[in-house]
Design a protein that fits this description.
Elements: H1 4-7, E1 19-23, E2 26-31, H2 33-42, E3 50-54, E4 61-62, H3 100-111, H4 118-138, H5 145-172
Antiparallel strand pairs: 1-2, 1-3, 3-4
Helix pairs in contact: 3-4, 3-5, 4-5
């Protein structure tokens, strides 16, 4: 039967002893976990674009993934050296919520079917579709290629059809 003292003991976590960090093209270190946390508190080090390596890591990882490093915007990490995840949307890529321009372009191109509003909504849908496609090409993890292409193609077709309809109406007057 465990003693009362052993019940109240927290499990020990081994923090890395020497951590090297890199920001941009410059490398710094080695630092201890305490030194890095102090630099984070003073604003000398931020998690944006800062990566770390310590013995046991197979590659550079995001600073907030280092055990014992407490970023101001992220919960503490106590796991072993973790690889950055490359998973896309939780919906399996069906709804590209990580690519808002593609999603907005998709809906704008559908709403461009509304008479009189079709041309401005179609133009906005095509523009958003182009931005969404560019985002998708820069980072394939975020998905949204189908939505972006739909926005560009469907929005363009609706613009042409509505412009032709307006032209025919004007000529018949």
């Amino acid at each position: 039967m465990p003693s009362a003292e052993s019940k109240n003991k927290m499990p020990s976590v081994d923090f890395p002893r020497e951590i090297f960090i890199t920001h941009g093209s410059q490398q710094f270190g080695p630092y201890t976990v305490e030194e890095i946390n102090a630099k984070i508190r003073t604003g000398e080090v931020t998690g944006v674009g800062t990566f770390a390596w310590y013995q046991g890591c197979s590659q550079w990882i995001s600073l907030d993934r280092v055990p014992g490093v407490f970023m101001l915007y992220a919960p503490p990490t106590f796991g072993a050296c973790a690889q950055p995840h490359s998973q896309g949307d939780a919906t399996g890529g069906l709804i590209p919520y990580k690519n808002p321009p593609a999603l907005v372009g998709y809906y704008l191109s559908i709403f461009s079917l509304i008479p009189l509003l079709g041309i401005p909504l179609g133009i906005a849908g095509v523009i958003c579709g182009i931005f969404g496609l560019r985002r998708r090409n820069k980072n394939p993890i975020i998905k949204g290629m189908g939505h972006a292409l739909f926005a560009i193609i469907f929005g363009s077709l609706v613009i042409l059809i509505q412009a032709a309809g307006i032209f025919i109406m004007i000529r018949s007057i």
